[in-house]
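Worked problem 6 (solution included).
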Amino acid sequence: MKNQLLTLSALLFLMGGAIAQKTKKEIVFFEDFNQKTLDRSKWNIEITGNTYNDEQQAYVDSAATVYLIKGKAEGAKNGALVIQPIYNPGHTSKEGRKYDFISGRINTEDKMMFTYGTASVRMKMDDGAGLWPAFWALGKGKWPDCGEIDVMETVGDGLWISNAVHGPGYFGNTPFAKRDTFAKGTDVTQWHIYSVDWTPASLTFKVDDRITYTMTKAMAEKYGRWAFDNPKFLILNFAIGGGYPNSVNKLNKPYYGLSQQSLDKIKTGKARTIVDWVLVTK
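Solution. The predicted structure is:
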């Protein structure tokens, strides 16, 4: 995508003063979800091929799982994206695999790829054991050699989020992962800005401009090759259950890594991730 320059006043209007006052940089990508439907010149909607991490959902291209809401609804600045899992027993993928849940996963692969800079998102989500929304970046090619940057993950405990980095020699239960606990009275159900500052030598993660974790090239190279000199694309998704949630909550019923309370939230439409905007700067 052709780089675009936004004025400081435009950023102040679209994003609010807190972040815009510090953003006097080249804008590589900005999406505030102010259209009627998802802008497919910027985003791909993924459809499940293979399921990873023992997750319980199939990703589908459906207005039930990925849709936009207008205006300042839900506290957004100028429209918002909603990713919502649906309980849909008997759903069968084109590969013939059956699922009880469908959900949404979108990415910018081949539409917006970037190397170095800051990627940020303003978002909020519902909590509940086994609800697993994420904002992350991935390179093209074989995983984990391509490099993965997990800017924000939550597996349902609303009091903390995690950052993680995966590459050759440091993947899966990676040594480069950090939980960050919110201040008292704050949790994932409120609006926050999650970001990563990516340089040739480091990855620095932040919540609301507060540093939560820093991982350096020197740290990575104790385990394997630094996998963060290649272009990455952004991903927003909402997974259900699976290995990471199960490692935290130890639940196997009613679904692997998912609690009954979270299942009830999904069934009643109360499990959603809402994204106000996404920004990438150089």
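Discussion: Residues 8-15 form the longest helix (8 residues).
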